[in-house]
Amino acid sequence: xxxxxxxxxxxxxxxxxxxxxxxxxxxxxxxxxxxxxxxxxxxxxxxxxxxxxxxxxxxxxxxxxxxxxxxxxxxxxxxxxxxxxxxxxxxxxxxxxxxxxxxxxxxxxxxxxxxxxxxxxxxxxxxxxxxxxxxxxxxxxxxxxxxxxxxxxxxxxxxxxxxxxxxxxxxxxxxxxxxxxxxxxxxxxxxxxxxxxxxxxxxxxx
Length: 206
Description:
Arc Repressor Mutant, subunit A, Rna Polymerase Sigma Factor, Chain: A, 2 domains, 10 helices, mainly alpha
């Protein structure tokens, strides 16, 4: 066992016994990466901070159940991810939040670097994109799917960057409306992207 692992094991043993100093040390060590992970998923600083505080409160209340010999850090991240999912379940009936989540999900799916979004989720978005008018569809694909800048697409198509910006805004509105025609489809799309984001953001723990 390495020195770092030994130090963490000792901290956890002290935490089990109710040491507030050990708890504070663990918070100092892991709150920032956990916060970044949660913020990446929820896209709201206040909500991320609230989930983080609830997570560490849960850790303190259940400190006696901690097994210092196990991969306890994975437990922290898994707990945080479950709390994020619970958060989205609570707001699933909030139409304004669903609108926001759909656009956030679209941004993630159209990210050219994102390799973890499954084919079914891409297919859902592709189906929505096919309903766009021809020029809007082309602009959206060039900017969002191929990652070209507004200036590059404007020069390529011989139109202004202002027109490109308007087309992207209109495309986002149309895509949102497509998914909102069926709330179950919207929730499925959001959930699929969320699962992929959690898989992407969770650390690999040896």
